[in-house]
Amino acid sequence: MNPTTLVTAAELARLQARGSVLVADCRFDLADAAKGEREWAQAHVPGAVYFHLDRDLSDLSKRALGRHPLPHDLVFSAALARAGWRPGVDVVAYDDAQGALAAARMWWLLRLAGVRNVAVLDGGWAAWRDAGLPIESGAAVTEQSTVQLALDRAQVVWFDELERRRASGDVLLLDARAAPRYRGEIEPIDTVAGHVPGARNRPFADNLQDGGRFKPRERLRNEFESLLEGRPARDVVHMCGSGVTACHNLLAMEYAGLAGSRVFAPSWSGWISDPSRAVASGE
After folding, report:
1. What pairing do the DSSP bridges indicate for beta strands 21-25 and 90-94?
2. Is 26 considered catalytic here?
3. 100 burial class (0-12, 13-18, 19+ CB within 10 angstroms)?
4. Which of 28, 154, 173, 241 has a CA 20 to 30 Å removed from the CA of 264?
5. Is residue 1 a contact partner of residue 20, using CB atoms and an 8 Å limit?
6. DSSP helix/strand/coil, 283
7. Considering 240, 244, 251, 256, which one is annotated as catalytic?
8. CA–CA separation, 92 vs 106, rounded Å?
9. What is the CA radius of gyration of the chain?
10. Measured in whole angstroms, how far is the alpha carbon of residue 208 from the centre of its chain?
11. Which domains does the chain have, with CATH numbers?
12. Which of 187, 174, 214 is nearest to 281 (CA)?
């Protein structure tokens, strides 16, 4: 087994039985930043190490780059080292939001660092529990390693590239937020409502079917190809509120065999940091 996109709970159990897998618990609640870690301490997949979205997977000290800027290389590497990860060890990340907070973010960051043997647990924490698989509490026992990874920021879309490609028309910008936020009808988090002019809405929840699992590969491929309208996948740039749930759409496309799309990391919260940037509302 070579996990690169999604694994089932049964597949994760087999990876654990084989050994040499890091399970990353990435549960997070935007309204209560400590909730995910509390719940991890109470119950988690055996051996799972907790990764905090704000501390380990972001650098909140950065300004004008959105609510969840990319983490510093040293901080991300230190988090992996504390978890005992080393090159060659598979990684499976999960959360309790069907991968959107923040398992897909963990997957994306590792891929930016050149790690390919990483996947997201399809269905997340609920899928593991529903399968009746073992659960443990308390901190995992890990043997710290030495890790030095560098995130390839050239794979990330920043303001200048997005503006250039919007002007030339060679980009399909997909916004992963729920439709009411995209349309600007509500905005519970950021200071301005609406969306980047020209962006199209692809709520990350549209990647899922009943039970919170990802839709079958072929169905996802058909849905994204209908949005692409003949464009190559490399023309797609994903965004959301802060660069977290956008990774869910990137993961869905990769799972569907449509490789090459990228993420506009600052996303909406970064876009509105400059009041001179245009804002659209409605469909």
Report:
1. parallel
2. no
3. buried
4. 28
5. no
6. coil
7. 240
8. 9
9. 18
10. 15
11. 6-151 (3.40.250.10), 156-271 (3.40.250.10)
12. 187
Burial class (CB in 10 A: 0-12, 13-18, 19+), 160: exposed
Distance CA 209, CA 203 (A): 13
Tell me the torsion sign for CA atoms 225, 229, 234, 239: negative
Could you please report the per-residue DSSP string of 166-215? Answer: HHHT--EEEE-S-HHHHHTS--SSSSS-SB-TT-EE--GGGGB-TTSPBP
- pLDDT of the chain along its 283 residues, tens only? 568 999 999 999 999 999 889 999 999 999 999 999 999 999 999 999 999 999 999 999 998 999 999 999 999 999 999 999 999 999 999 999 999 999 999 999 999 999 999 999 999 999 999 999 999 999 988 889 999 999 999 999 999 999 999 999 999 999 999 999 999 999 999 999 999 999 999 999 999 998 899 999 999 999 999 999 999 999 999 999 999 999 999 999 999 999 999 999 999 999 999 999 999 999 8
Query: Residue 100 and residue 189: Cα distance in Å, rounded?
Result: 16
pTM: 0.97
Which residue has 């600007």 as its token pair?
Answer: 184
Output the 3-class SS for 222-247: HHHHHHHCCCCHHHEEEECCCCCCHH
State the Cα–Cα distance between residues 63 and 242, nearest whole angstrom. 13
